[in-house]
Fold:
Amino acid sequence: MQSDQFPRGIDHIGVTVPDIEAATVFLIRALGAEVVYDTLVRGEPAQAGPDVEARLGIVAGAKIVAFRMLKLRNGPGIELFEMEAPEQRSPARPSDFGLQHLAFYVDDIDAAARRFAANGGELFEGPHPLPGPERGDGNVFRYGRTPWGMIVEFITYPASQPYFETTPLRRWTP
Structure:
């Protein structure tokens, strides 16, 4: 098979938030994100109607009131959408189907967790050692929740991992 038939990697992750300005401030303060550009600024005509609904698979009557692209130092972009819809649900929990969490590689998990919590994030218990093929000295993770309910993970694995001995493949690390 030709390699151009397969994705090269993740370009961006789209996240629907209740307030794009509050979410942007949180991501800047908690994760060091930067705003790259706005595609639709709140106050401009919303994107709505049957064409938008069909293109994005959103519910009838939903409208996009703002969206913006942010970046972290490394990895995919984060595209924020502020939408209004007749029926909006709470974010999925890790036990629900769909995107379970967004993971951020950090060098200092304790510092990253403190910054996240200081800016309005909720931390779950931890950090915890990475299991099985990822275990190693200092290889740990910790989950949390953003102010709008999205689940995130902070992860670091500075030590060699057992899976290195069973395959030449390596997961991508920023």
Remarks:
- Helices lie at 20-31, 50-56, 109-118.
- Strands lie at 12-17, 34-40, 47-48, 63-71, 77-84, 102-105, 122-123, 128-129, 140-145, 151-156.
